[in-house]
Design brief:
mainly alpha; Growth Hormone, Chain: A
Length: about 400
């Protein structure tokens, strides 16, 4: 359990977790895809690509936040991030069909995504530093609510959009207002311990690597590519969940429920995998979720109905687990002092996955009548995860030898 007695970090953790609940709207894009395409008349593949842009800018925001944490108060970074997300949502509601799809890439993707990344990294860094002896649990709680957002917002957004008196545009404005209120109410609670007078930060005897020093270590590259290969399956499958449901023997109306199930599994993995890492070792936990992802993705070629739902949940669970375990693995190897900046660089692997794999493997072609199209993509994604598992196994062997 967390030691909350006389620890001001508990307020930081609670406020940050609530903010993460709002920031996690990033994972609800699949619910927006069809309404946005219908409203504005853009090509559906271009609309789906918005989430790729958002995730890339999310990582750029994480990277920027890591650098800013040494120069300004954490609360100001979170305020800027939350405001950008609210502005991104609101300006998206101002778009029209006469504007090219680049408009939504800018408003929702670039502005919103960058803002989420700023706040996300700062909140995660705060959680780890306030509870250095319980980093797994503190980080797990913080990222859990980020993933749990889809469970709450997916049905809410669907209901609001389908309500005649509200619709897509007003839904975006309601969400924008909600993010603004939450940010203004809670940003001041987010503080790094080194920014609080009278608080001594104990990083222990472990060497504290700067980002430059980290880049000179082979461990960094093994961690970087393991993250890159683990996340590919989720990035390609998740945006198409609503459209994939009927292709695997499910009613088309089950699509939103599938998004919710994936969101719940995503959030559960964020809490469970860091705790698993406390039991079997964090590198062992990374290897476990990579193997599950590889086997699960390959099995999608031959399963339908309930088994399809279970495997999608497992893939989402493992993806969520990566968000909780990789910040911890990074700190284990390179220290807590510069975790914001160092994890930001590791997250470039996440961004590389977003940019590279949709181009190499392609978005799932949910409208193609030939099942072999998706079969080949499932197998390719499984192979990618298997390579990530091999890299993690090498990392484990190196760590056992004490070779860094």
């Amino acid at each position: 359990m967390l030691n909350v007695k006389n620890n001001p970090g508990i307020k930081v953790l609670i406020a940050g977790s609530i903010l993460q609940l709002f920031l996690g709207i990033i994972y609800v894009w699949s619910v927006f895809v069809l309404p946005v395409q219908t409203k504005f008349g853009w090509q559906i593949q271009d609309v789906k690509f918005t989430v790729n842009i958002m995730l890339c800018c999310f990582v750029l925001g994480i990277l920027t936040a890591g650098k800013l944490q040494t120069k300004m108060k954490a609360s100001y970074i979170v305020l800027a991030g939350g405001m950008m997300m609210a502005i991104g949502m609101f300006t998206t509601s101002m778009l029209s069909a006469t504007i090219p799809v680049y408009g939504i890439w800018l408003t929702y993707g670039i502005i919103g995504g960058f803002g989420v990344g700023l706040a996300y990294n700062t909140i995660i860094s705060s959680a780890q530093k306030w509870f250095p002896k319980k980093r797994g649990l503190a980080t797990g709680i913080s990222v859990f609510t980020f993933g749990f957002s889809a469970v709450i917002f997916a049905p809410l957004v669907e209901q609001l959009i389908q309500t005649n008196t509200i619709g897509l545009i007003l839904t975006l404005r309601i969400l924008s207002a909600a993010f603004l209120v939450a940010t203004v109410a809670l940003f001041a609670f987010i503080k790094l311990p080194e920014n609080v007078k009278g608080v001594t930060v104990d990083f222990g005897a472990q060497k504290q690597y700067t980002t430059g020093q980290m880049l000179g270590k082979i461990d960094f590259y093994l961690i970087f590519f393991s993250m890159m290969f683990l996340t590919a399956a989720f990035f390609i499958i998740n945006p198409s969940l609503k459209l994939l449901a009927p292709m695997h023997g499910l009613d088309i109306t089950f699509g939103v429920t599938l998004v919710m199930i994936a969101g719940l599994a995503n959030s559960a993995g964020r809490l469970a995998i860091p705790l698993l890492g406390e039991k079997i070792g964090r590198r062992g936990a990374v290897l476990t979720i990579l193997l599950i992802t590889a086997i699960g993705t390959a099995s999608l070629c031959m399963i339908n109905g309930l088994m399809f739902v279970i495997v999608i949940a497992l893939i989402a669970f493992c993806y969520g687990g990566s968000s909780g375990i990789f910040p911890l693995v990074t700190a284990d190897h390179f220290g807590l002092k510069n975790i914001g900046a160092n994890y930001g660089v590791v997250m470039i692997g996440f961004m590389s996955s977003v940019l590279l794999f949709p181009q190499l493997i392609g978005q799932l072609n949910t409208g193609d009548a030939d099942p072999t199209v998706n079969t080949m993509k499932y197998l390719a994604l499984a192979a990618v995860a298997a390579v990530g598992a091999l890299l993690t196994f090498i990392l484990i062997l190196k760590s056992r030898k004490g070779d860094k």
